[in-house]
Design brief:
Mean pLDDT: 87
Strand order of the largest sheet: 8-9-7-6-1-2-5-10
Strand content: 15-25%
Order of helices and strands: HHHHHEHEHHEEHEEHEEEE
Number of strands: 10
Structural class: alpha/beta
Largest sheet: 8 strands, mixed
CATH architecture of the largest domain: 3-Layer(aba) Sandwich
Number of domains: 2
Radius of gyration: 19 Å
Number of helices: 10
Length: 283
């Protein structure tokens, strides 16, 4: 795939899916797309783009591929243990009703993991957990509370699995009790404005795919969206090299606290507030 073909394909994908591939690492994304297109029946990029125009199902499949929906409940157990034993109790000591955002939530694994933790820690309190993603197919699964495969729930002990999940023919689903604790919404991290006053923002194993400039803008938006002392929870490989420059201080690997001493940074502009689909998701 030469530069002209890649540029043409990026433009077509932006038009059809609203995903701006210029925000991603160019070499990595070009390699992924080239391999994906080569598996199709198209003989060239122009032919593949014509197929996208004529076949909405192909567009959905492409979005699924680009969304990188790979997750599981309590992924990276040590980090979730730190979240449960240290971060959540600290946040709860300041605010009994937490406002939490699981962004780029995929199929809802992390949002429901946190809902289960909070039910263990403080069942008497009500919290707000917002889970958003750009992929509507993933959001539909999240909103329905599943189904989730055996590998999705492999980090969950038998007692927790029996308490908060229902086994069905097609896999596991979270109980309605847990499902109703999570709001599901559509949100494009690169285009839509961010809400404010979050105690905890979870954005894991996503930022690593973006270019450095986009990454810093996202961190700036997360900074603005957090309350003073709020926490950003990122993936294990997403180390913020100079957190002080972005208004954060590292409390633990993967956990960055908002500093109160830095002026509010600039944000990525957007056109509309996140589209909250509702707790009883309908897409």
């Amino acid at each position: 795939m030469d530069d002209l073909e890649y540029s043409y394909l990026k433009h077509k994908i932006l038009k059809l899916t609203d995903i701006d591939l210029d925000a991603y690492k160019s070499r990595q994304m070009r390699r992924r797309l080239e391999g994906y297109v080569n598996k199709s029946s198209a003989t060239d990029i122009a032919g593949y783009c014509r197929m996208l125009d004529q076949n909405p199902e192909m567009v959905i499949e492409l979005m699924d591929y680009l969304a990188i929906n790979v997750s599981e409940f309590f992924r990276d157990l040590p980090s979730f243990e730190y979240l449960k034993k240290t971060v959540l109790p600290e946040l709860l000591s300041r605010n009994r009703r937490l406002n939490i955002w699981s962004t780029a939530c995929s199929c809802g694994h992390e949002a429901y993991s946190i809902a289960i933790m909070l039910e263990d820690i403080c069942p008497q309190h009500r919290h707000r957990i917002l889970a958003t993603d750009i992929d509507r197919k993933a959001l539909e699964q999240a909103g329905n509370g599943g189904p989730y495969s055996q590998s999705d729930v492999r980090n969950i002990d038998r007692h927790t699995l029996a308490r908060f999940f229902v086994k069905e023919e097609d896999g596991y689903r979270v109980t309605d009790f847990i499902r109703r604790k999570v709001e599901i919404g559509h949100h494009n991290l690169l285009k839509d404005p961010f809400e404010y006053s979050f105690d905890l923002i979870v954005c894991r194993n996503v930022i690593i795919y973006f270019s450095n400039s986009v990454r810093d803008k996202l961190y700036a938006n997360f900074y603005r969206s957090l309350r003073a002392g709020g926490m950003l929870f990122v993936g294990g490989s997403e180390v913020i090299l100079h957190p002080d420059d972005l208004g954060f201080s590292m409390k633990h690997p993967s956990f960055y606290s908002k500093s109160c001493l830095r002026p509010e940074p600039a944000t990525i502009e957007g056109a509309a507030l996140p589209d909250v689909i509702s707790k009883e998701v309908r897409i």
